[in-house]
Amino acid sequence: MRIDIMTLFPEMIDAVMRQSIIGRAQDKGLVEVRATNIRDFAPDKHHKADDAPYGGGRGQVMLAEPLYLCHQALCAGAPVHTVFLSAQGRPFDQDKARALLAKGRFILVCGHYEGVDQRFIDQCVDEEISIGDFVLTGGEIPAMAVADAVCRMVPGVLPDEDAFTAESHWEGLLEHPQYTRPENWRGRAVPEVLLSGHHAKIEAWRREMSLRRTKADRPDLYARFTPRTAQDEMLLRKLEAPD
Questions:
Q1: Smallest Cα–Cα separation from 143: which of 19, 7, 1, 2?
Q2: Which of 189, 31, 178, 57 shows the shortest CA–CA distance to 114?
Q3: Which tens digits make up the pLDDT trace of 219-228?
Q4: Residues 189-207 pLDDT 10s
Q5: Are 87 and 135 in contact (CB under 8 A)?
Q6: Burial 47-84 (b: 16+ CB within 10 A, else e)
């Protein structure tokens, strides 16, 4: 898996993506996350990457030409799926992370200032992605979030597939609560079933807690959930039964 990130601040990307699990995965050659400085492709001697918007208004807009030249250099004549991190984009989710994983390689474009010249987007961008209905100062944080979500699914990055398939959003549910030592912390005890050693009962409890948490905290996800087993159907009937 290779992810190229076009940015004005490559040091931000390197500082995070070279650490922890993703950093170790890069050291092993399982994934490659490259940050490329857009300013390096500005054709003027001052490496100018932005200018005032036509039509007036506050702030600066990123120039199309440095973005285009940077993109062309990364593509090297071959089409590469390109994503612009944008507040106007489609909300990012686990399904989109899986779709990007399947591509094997893609480019993430980080905007900054008041935005990016639309002509670059029209020319080079395949899709726009948002990580939420809010605005950040730049696309670096969203780009790292997307890269992390994709890279952790690459085989070998995590110990086994269950490390991510059992987590929130993989199949449209939130993850069940987690507990560790001590058994009693400040008067709060670990649920007895988790101490029972009965694996089937533990898995049934976790599934029920996952459904309960999703119903309470994300009713939108709960409403779209499709039961996969007879146990799921039984649990849904239990949750929907009047108290």
A1: 7
A2: 57
A3: 999 999 999 8
A4: 999 999 999 999 999 999 9
A5: yes
A6: eebbeeeeeeeeebbbbbbbbbebbeebeeeeebebbb
